[in-house]
């Protein structure tokens, strides 16, 4: 649960700007709920400040063969560093919404990888992971709308 008057970082990784549009929609919903959202790409965010960022919503697309999109390459490389302590993100609460296409074998791979890496670094999941599917009759909105509720 996230309380009012809380800073929420909505960080996205996108190749075609779909994840950016979803992140902006999540930001608008956060405002409606009296939260203070900051929406930006993962590579615009100072990733070294993640351990002191209490609430984060990641919106990540999957590209190619389960690879990270362009706007999160540097942040993802940092998060994969082997020298990061297992409890380095213990003060962070997070959730993930992924954009993928279930016709691909590695459906929403980056959302799944991001979730696992955050958990590996000690972060706590505060809301179930959402996996948007381009194949849904309503596109990713088919999962996003109930996920936001």
- Give the name of the CATH superfamily: Flavodoxin domain
Strand content: 15-25%
Low-confidence stretches: 1-5
Report the helical percentage: 25-40%
Based on secondary structure, the structural category is alpha/beta
The largest pleated sheet is described as: 6 strands, parallel
Give the radius of gyration.
14 Å
Quickly name the level 1 CATH class: Alpha Beta
- Count of alpha/pi helices: 4
For this structure, the quaternary state is single chain
Q: Remind me, CATH topology?
A: Rossmann fold
Task: Calculate the mean pLDDT score and round it.
Answer: 90
Element-by-element helix/strand order: EHEEHEHEEH
Shape: globular
**What is the count of distinct domains?**
1
How would you sum up this structure, described in words?
28% of the residues lie in helices and 23% in strands. It has four helices and six strands. With 149 residues, it is an alpha/beta fold. It starts with 6 loop residues before the first strand and ends with a helix. The protein has helices spanning 18-32, 73-79, 109-120, 141-148; strands at residues 7-13, 36-41, 55-61, 93-100, 124-125, 130-133.
Keywords:
single chain, 149 residues, alpha/beta, Rossmann fold, six-stranded parallel β-sheet, 4 helices, 28% helix, 23% strand, disordered N terminus
Summarize the structure.
The protein has 149 residues and is of the alpha/beta class.
List the helices and strands and how they pair.
Layout: E1 7-13, H1 18-32, E2 36-41, E3 55-61, H2 73-79, E4 93-100, H3 109-120, E5 124-125, E6 130-133, H4 141-148
Parallel strand pairs: 1-2, 1-3, 3-4, 4-5, 4-6
């Amino acid at each position: 649960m996230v309380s009012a008057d809380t800073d929420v970082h909505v960080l996205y990784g996108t190749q075609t700007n779909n994840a950016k549009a979803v992140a902006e929609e999540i930001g608008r919903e956060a405002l409606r709920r009296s939260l203070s959202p900051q929406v930006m790409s993962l590579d615009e965010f100072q990733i070294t400040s993640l351990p002191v960022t209490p609430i984060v919503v990641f919106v990540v697309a999957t590209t190619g063969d389960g690879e990270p999109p362009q706007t999160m390459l540097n942040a993802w490389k940092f998060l994969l560093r082997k020298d990061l302590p297992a409890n380095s993100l213990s003060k962070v609460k997070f959730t993930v919404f992924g954009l993928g296409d279930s016709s691909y074998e590695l459906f929403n791979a980056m959302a799944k990888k991001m979730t696992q890496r955050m958990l590996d670094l000690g972060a706590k999941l505060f809301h179930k992971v959402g996996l948007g599917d381009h194949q849904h009759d309503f596109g990713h909105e088919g999962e996003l709308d109930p996920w936001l509720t």
